[in-house]
Amino acid sequence: MLDLSYSKTSPTFWDSSRSPFASMIGTNHVPTLSELNQLKDSLLLPENELHRVNFEIHRIRTFLDVLSQEKQQIERYIDAHKALMSPVRQLPSETLSEIFKWCLPFDPPYAVRNIYQAPLILTTICRSWRLTAINTPRLWNSLHVYLPPHLSRLTCSRRISGITTWLKRSGSLPLSLSFH
């Protein structure tokens, strides 16, 4: 424990108002040669103390960095193991598939090719969810298609390829399409 009583480690010890030069600090006084020598001598102890304090700060920061890294590693270990116990992992893929269907848009009733919306976002969570989503035809049998006239051939070709993949995932279900 740090002792902050009145000593050279005490903040009050380094109070400029207690300095032998307090009356000159903050003034336009020009020190004489004798005063300059006294000033240099009077700064030996505080400069040594500053060096000691800086060294201690560095030592403690280094120690704190090591502890912080250790803490992060322990937290990652705990989180990884808690994730294994997640109740959603216990759901059969059939149940998960039913839940995924409720993620589809209602109004308008057409899904869009947007990675931040269902069903595409469901394919980004984990491998199990990706497989379940891809193998749930009901997620893929509706689509809003937007093909603006200014698309390059390459972009248009990519969109058509994506739409084809989307519709293949619908299996033998009837399709609901919207075009713009």
**What is the alpha-carbon Rg in Å?**
35 Å
Percentage of residues in DSSP E strands: under 5%
- How many strands in all? 2
> For the largest beta sheet, what order do the strands appear in spatially?
1-2
Order of helices and strands: HHHEHE
Structural class: mainly alpha
- Which bin fits the share of residues in helices? 40-55%
Average the pLDDT over all residues and give the rounded result.
90
- The shape is elongated
Distance between the termini: 72 Å
Task: Describe the protein's architecture and organization.
This protein is mostly helical. The chain is 47% helix and 4% strand. The chain is built from 4 helices and 2 strands, in the order αααβαβ. It has helices spanning 33-84, 93-101, 127-134, 153-168, and strands at residues 142-145, 176-179. Strands 1-2 form a two-stranded parallel sheet. Helix 2 (93-101) crosses helix 3. The longest helix is centred in the N-terminal third of the chain and has 52 residues, at 33-84. It comes from Lentinula aciculospora.
